Amino acid sequence: GGRGVGIVLSVFKKLHRTRVDVFKDDTRALTAARFKINEEFKKNKNETSEENIEKMIKMGSDVEAVLRETVLQVEHVEENKLLLRPRDGLLLENVPYCDEPRKKS
User: Fold this and answer.
1) Distance from chain centroid for Cα 3
2) pTM of this prediction?
3) What DSSP letter does each residue of 55-100 carry, written as one string?
4) What sign does the dihedral 97-100-104-105 (CA atoms) show?
């Protein structure tokens, strides 16, 4: 089916856009993420089963969302001082760094 290809491509592009956004200025992370994304897509590029393609599109979208919403860049400013660099669209309530564990409601 040609239909899947367009969607796969747009997920691929979106993942790369998010990767560049999320790991801005972090060459090592950018390279590692690029390699991982390309690897996954290459590995599955001959997949023909519609069902599997759907699954992979879903997974790609999920990964993109997780990256966009939960990856937080932290910069070492001084020896023991960190600077958080939240981006627009970051859901801060998802950030796992809490001073105390949340009480389960």
Assistant:
1) 24
2) 0.65
3) HHHHHHHHHHHHHHHH--EEEEEETTEEEEEPPTT--GGG----SS
4) negative
